[in-house]
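=== Discrete structure encoding ===
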Amino acid sequence: MKKIFIILLLTINIIYANDFINEYISSQSLLYSKITELNTTADKVEELLTQKESQEINFFNKVTNNREKTLSILMPNIEEKATLSRKIKVNIILKKDASVLLDKIKINYYLAIDTFYELCFGVLNATYSDSKDDFEKDMDKLISKNIDSIKKIESIKNDKKTLENIDENIMVDIDNAITKLDTIIKINNDLRKYIISYQDTIFKSKIYSTFGLNNISNIIGKSNFARELDPLIEPLKLNSTKLTIIILIILWTFILSSSYYWLISIILKYTHYQTTESLYIVKRMQRVVRFIIILFGLDMIIDTYLGVGAMVDESSKFFDMGFVALFTYLIYGILNSIASLKIKTIRSKKSGYRSEVINLIVKIVNFIVLLIGFLVILKLYGIDLSTILSGLGIGSLAVAFALKDTLSNFFGSVSILLDDPFSQGDWISVGNLGEGIVIEIGLRSTTIRTFDNAMITIPNLQIANNSVKNWNKRLIGRRIKMYIGVTYESNFDDIKKAIADIKEMLLTHPNIATKHTKYIDSQKSIKLLSKEDFRGVKRTLLVNLDSFGDSSVNIMIYCFSRSVKWTKYLDVKEDVMFKIAKILKDNNLEFAYPSMSLYINKD
């Protein structure tokens, strides 16, 4: 990802000539002649190549940073080409083939310069494209045209082979002209390669001109302050323009990162999207957005300091991977924040949607987002993804075999969500595997908090293959069942009245379910089975003399509390027991306890 403001960060010493393109050609030609000298040492050649590369960078920056000024330069050597064309016509009549060839090579030299100018102008004109796709198409046409023009210009050198009996002096002139032509062709080809390497940077350069940042650079570079400061900071590879822009970037980064939440709130309010939920998401993502802004500012500072070249290109890869990682985390956080809000809404409104399904979908989406982010980072790092994907295709069987348990547990979680045997917060018992409150239904396993406050993790496959007892899948009715024993010395009329009193007490008790207890159920009726059995509604109430025990007459009490909550159930059960005790006392009955009678034979 190339930087939007990278051209802002490319700073140079602003020294303009009437035609800095021609100056660049002259300086590059001089360097090429020095490099090709026979007595040039290896160290000197390396120094000259470094100087040549520095000139390329400065020239490239000057062209892109000053688009309008560059496009205003007139094409040179018009008179020279016209004069040579007239000479060629005369020499053709006089049949001076060598002179004709020499003049044609000189014309092609000027044509090569024209081609170089056209390359510079064409690149800048391409930056006026509205989209990057249009820009890339224009650049492809420009590069192809430049290559074809250079090939056509170079072909003149082949005509030298057709000459015969040529004067030695004119042959020397032809060779010198060819050397000059080769030099300008090399300069053209080097710039073309440079342009191909930094197409993204060139496209972004129009922002620099659009906002008038080149004028700011001019003002700073020409000021007295810059003339005094530049010599002092030059050893640090800085100048006044660079330093000023770096300070502005630091201030911009600080202000934007500090006012992010306020700015987004204003935008949401202006666009009528400001809600409690949107502000909650913006607040949660505040830290990661600050990191993105700071990383972007740091990236611009480094680009400002380094300029265009291989080093900034390498640093860009590092920052690109950082941006991908942060944006991946941003999307991950937004998805989880939205899911959290939706689940909270579902639980508060008790809608028909299951929060566990949303939770599972979010986890799958999170995995896909993280996977895409990881693959993009690998791509930026230079790893060929096609090789990895083809390798996965070949090794898919081995991967599937290695992950068979994980896949089995994943489909077990899908089965649990489809069958809906329990939900988060339910009290369940899974065979002999454990009992407690469901905390989370994950992709691989379900976590349960036991009543002694331990955490159990059970693979979903085992849950799917075991019987699950769910104590929360009931709408009305938690069973109260007990046997009350009274002594055999009791009067059975009193027992009969006590049974009637207990039944009456249960029928009128506000927290005991009876056949008159009403309930609200928004779900449609189940035709193939009892709706009350399906929804968990129990309203049976029985009070009967049950049996003659070894030491007591037993009365069975069988009923259901209205509430299914354990704490409320215990309170109801306790109240019922106290009232039963009072009824027995009012009816002159005593609780029996286990006893044994011993009879002694006097004989």
Summary: The chain has four domains: 20-222, 232-383, 415-470, 478-586. The radius of gyration is 45 Å. The beta strands are 427-430, 434-441, 445-449, 455-459, 468-470, 478-486, 512-513, 542-548, 553-561.
